[in-house]
């Protein structure tokens, strides 16, 4: 049996590792680069707490040791009717296909009017350019998200680190942070007291919160928000609206949401196709943890069907470890429909924990099944 995985990120590599633990079948991963980076630790590049080389590993080398094929190529088109995938290195067929190409961050960032006057705190290049600007700029800093952006945790971290850098440099510039929720930081978490505590912490750090605001346009030295107001800042960094990558949309997998509509918790799109991570439509933030859980659930579904192997399924939730310069924090919200686990706390030791986990992810090429999510049954959601 042939298992074809498109994408070598958190979801794609988690699938490959888990399949190999239980099957000796043919497993192939196709990704545009054999060099894979653990990007949840990228905010610490801004303060030199980590170096680029600390974030990366050779996925081809790691997978080949397990007898998993790795093809460095671009995915050109997908043909589900014939079970074939056209790539820059040829055509591949499959029995089961996993779509794990991530989200179309770059293409959506370029759709923001005036994006050339801002950075995107998601890619390595975006973080490196933002770092240079934060350590040299004399003015204010703006951090925010475009409408319907799928994740705000990176923006929270960048705002905190920006405040730290300005303070360390002895500058008195302001740091502005937009939140999509009118309740503020972590406002989407349905637990009383969370957003109040989070807002208080950010405000004590001197960050100006602009609640319930989105970035609609960027001009040199200023940002236009969805209410028409403008914020002036020398350094502007934004995470865009997101959709599935163009090749996924062009191959007919996406719905009106711009994402692949899947069944939860299995992340199944069709009988032989699963869509994972950022490109799948879910009600949860698109995080590395969520991508890995989606992969776990998809493989558990397949193993039960084809081998009768019963493995756990997990719920999706929120786990955000904030890196904030000389401080840090953690937010957790998980529920399996019966129990709710939630926490919000601050302290530098959370950054140390995050760095240790990041090193483990890099060392094991994302083969780290523990993610602390509660187990669920396959018929939940």
In short:
The chain has 381 residues and is an alpha/beta fold. The protein contains nine helices and 24 strands. It has helices spanning 10-22, 59-64, 105-109, 124-134, 153-169, 194-204, 246-250, 288-307, 349-363; strands at residues 2-6, 26-31, 35-37, 56-58, 69-72, 75-79, 84-87, 90-93, 96-99, 141-145, 175-179, 207-211, 215-219, 222-225, 230-232, 235-239, 260-261, 273-275, 280-281, 313-314, 318-323, 328-335, 340-346, 375-376.
Strand order of the largest sheet: 5-2-1-9-18
Helical coverage, percent range = 25-40%
What's the architecture of the largest domain in CATH terms?
Answer: 3-Layer(bba) Sandwich
Please mark out the parts with pLDDT under 50 across 5 or more consecutive residues, or reply none: none
Overall pLDDT confidence: 95
Sum up the structure in keywords.
oxidoreductase activity, Pyridine nucleotide-disulfide oxidoreductase, 381 residues, FAD/NAD(P)-binding domain, FAD/NAD-bd_sf, globular, FAD/NAD-binding_dom
Question: Would you kindly provide a written description of the structure presented here, covering whatever features stand out?
Answer:
The structure is a single chain. The chain has 381 residues and is α/β, with parallel strands linked by helices. It has 2 domains: 2-104 and 243-313, FAD/NAD(P)-binding domain, CATH 3.50.50; 106-239, 3-Layer(bba) Sandwich (FAD/NAD(P)-binding domain). Helices cover 27% and strands 27% of the residues. The protein is built from 9 helices and 24 strands. The chain has helices at 10-22, 59-64, 105-109, 124-134, 153-169, 194-204, 246-250, 288-307, 349-363, and strands at residues 2-6, 26-31, 35-37, 56-58, 69-72, 75-79, 84-87, 90-93, 96-99, 141-145, 175-179, 207-211, 215-219, 222-225, 230-232, 235-239, 260-261, 273-275, 280-281, 313-314, 318-323, 328-335, 340-346, 375-376. A 5-stranded parallel beta sheet has the order 5-2-1-9-18. Strand 22 (328-335) and strand 23 (340-346) form a beta hairpin. Helix 1 packs parallel to helix 8. The radius of gyration is 21 Å and the shape is globular. The mean pLDDT is 95.
């Amino acid at each position: 049996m042939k298992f074809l995985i498109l994408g070598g990120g958190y979801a794609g590599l988690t699938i490959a590792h888990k399949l190999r633990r239980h099957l000796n079948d043919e497993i192939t991963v196709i990704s545009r680069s054999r060099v894979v980076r653990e990007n949840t630790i990228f905010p610490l590049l801004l303060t030199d707490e980590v170096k680029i080389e600390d974030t990366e590993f050779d996925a081809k080398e790691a997978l080949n040791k397990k007898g998993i094929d790795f093809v460095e190529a671009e995915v050109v088109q997908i043909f589900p009717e014939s079970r074939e995938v056209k790539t820059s290195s040829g055509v591949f067929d499959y029995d089961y296909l996993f779509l794990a190409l991530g989200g179309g961050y770059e293409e959506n960032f370029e759709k923001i009017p005036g994006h050339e006057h801002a950075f995107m705190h998601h890619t390595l290049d975006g973080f490196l350019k933002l770092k240079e600007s934060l350590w040299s700029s004399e003015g204010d800093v703006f951090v925010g998200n475009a409408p319907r952006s799928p994740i705000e945790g990176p923006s929270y971290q960048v705002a905190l680190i920006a405040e730290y850098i300005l303070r360390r440099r002895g500058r008195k510039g302001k740091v502005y942070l937009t939140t999509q929720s009118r309740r503020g930081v972590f406002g989407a978490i349905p637990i009383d007291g969370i957003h109040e505590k989070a807002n208080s912490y950010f405000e004590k750090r001197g960050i100006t919160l602009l609640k319930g605001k989105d970035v609609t346009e960027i001009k040199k030295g200023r940002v236009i928000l969805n209410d028409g107001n403008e914020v002036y800042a020398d350094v502007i960094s934004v995470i865009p609206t997101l959709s599935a990558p163009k090749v996924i949309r062009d191959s007919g997998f996406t719905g009106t949401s711009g994402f692949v509509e899947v069944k939860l918790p299995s992340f199944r799109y069709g009988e032989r196709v699963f869509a994972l991570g950022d490109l799948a439509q879910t009600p949860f933030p698109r995080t590395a943890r969520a991508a890995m859980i989606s992969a776990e659930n998809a493989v558990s579904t397949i193993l039960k069907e084809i081998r009768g192997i019963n493995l756990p399924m997990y719920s999706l939730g929120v786990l955000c470890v904030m890196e904030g310069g000389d401080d840090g924090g953690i937010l957790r919200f998980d529920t399996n429909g019966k129990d709710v686990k939630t926490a919000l706390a601050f302290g530098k030791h959370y950054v140390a924990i995050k760095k240790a986990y990041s090193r483990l992810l890099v060392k094991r090429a994302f083969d780290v099944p523990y993610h602390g999510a509660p187990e669920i049954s396959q018929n939940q959601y």
